[in-house]
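Problem: given the chain below (558 residues), write out its structure.
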Amino acid sequence: MTSIDPLLLANLAALREVNPDLMLRITWPCGSEHVAWSDDGGAAFRIHREWHRLSVTQAEIAAALAGYDPEKEALLLGLGLGDVLERLVSGANAPVLAWERDPWLLRLVLSRRDWTDEISSGAVRFMLTTDLLDVAREGVAQVLPHPLLGAVYRHEALLLRDGVQERRVLLGLGGLFVDDLADTLRGEGVSVIPWDTSGWSREELARAGKVVEAEAALQINYTRGLAEACAEVGVPLRVWEIDPSTDELPSVAGGPLGPASQGAVVATWREAHVELFKQAGFTRVLHLPLAANERNRRPLELSLEEKAEVDADIVFVGSSMVEQGFAFRQRLLAAYVLARGGDPSSAAKEGEAAFESVLEAQRNDFSVYVVPERLYAALPLLRAPMASQAAQEALQGARADALLGEMAGAHKRITYVANLGQVGIHVWGDDGWRHVEEYGVVYRGPAGHRTQLTRIYNSDAIHLDIGRLYQSDIITMRVFDVLACGGFCLAEWSPGLEALFVVGEELDCYRTLEEMLQKVEYWLDAGPEARRAVGERGRQRVLSDHTIAHRLRVLLKS
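Solution.
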């Protein structure tokens, strides 16, 4: 039996007297893997895929409290480990509202110090997740952001600034695109209330659905159990699939209010996935291409220094896919060894030989995706479902062909970019691009998602689009973003490209490596003015038809 920290028990007992609902919610299960501790007692907090120092210095605490008036009620936006709250309370002559989005962090704060006197007297009023709506409706004299978490909780800060609107949406947390959705929703007069579908308990998610009274719960990419959770509280679910996934799509189960998919609408950026979602049990599925956030991706007046930073004739911004492709290949090999049985060394050699044969066949022609057919012909044991439970667990829910497809996709991108090294292509992305520097490719390091990326797309370069090998039927986000900035885009052809744009007037496209090289040469000779004219026509098309606001109006009304 796991022991409970005595300080936490004491604080929960005090909370039970003043706020029994909050006391219960703190005991609900929640995610904790996003907080890590070092040997010296310091803590780190994971934001997306990066770790950040959660422990704060005295100087950071002083800066966070600069301008604080101890005679007026204050709200601390984000608690961290409680250090800022402790300093704040020590000098306060008015109540302090201590709010935290993260249930695990609130639990940590209540485990590190005795807050019983402050809780009982009302000097501190702890708040969690959607409790913030009460403050947003009533107002508060001063808001003090936590040194780290204040930026993480920017959507809550804007909710406090703008107040609670008549239209409200629960927005699932996730990658950078979620911020674009939130900005667009606010521009449409909709209040955005973050909803942590991976870190909150099922009970907390259900409570949020009831408290917020949202018109919908909006989620980027589907996660297992989400339809069932929304069905339990009667919140319509709207999902927009925008990212490639190696996972098998889970079937959706029935819920207490009937089929869980009844109130759900799934929009996918891949037309081919419409039928897959229907087979999984969703009845309302539509094809919804990607789009641009014109508030972030827009023409800029670059200074001479900024122009020099992004100056290039040919540009590609994106992942090399090398590191992930190699990791996926190793995962697939481990699964095959388990499925094959017998001598592991022999099985590994057999698997590696088959993988290399499949990848070599794919490298011979990147215009046709052959990995699934070739892989399952060579290694039929990898077809799902496999007889070996251990092998299925090694795949971690992924499709075998999708794992090897990532490696094939890396080969494609590396090959295409390497072939442009002779004409000086500049690449922004991960360290995998260092593999092609020997061919003349100029690697510029990672690109910041917001301002730096917009500056890059504002250059007069040929902005190259190279899609993932296994999803040649989509239009990438890169295409919409480049055009929204007025940049010239040379995109990889897909069936939907000609349906959404006028090829040759608003952008150009290629189908093969050879055609890409020819088109690059043509547009280099045409010069920057010709490219700018095409890019401007593409921008007008994006503004009229292909912004995130256009897509959200369709999704929320479906």
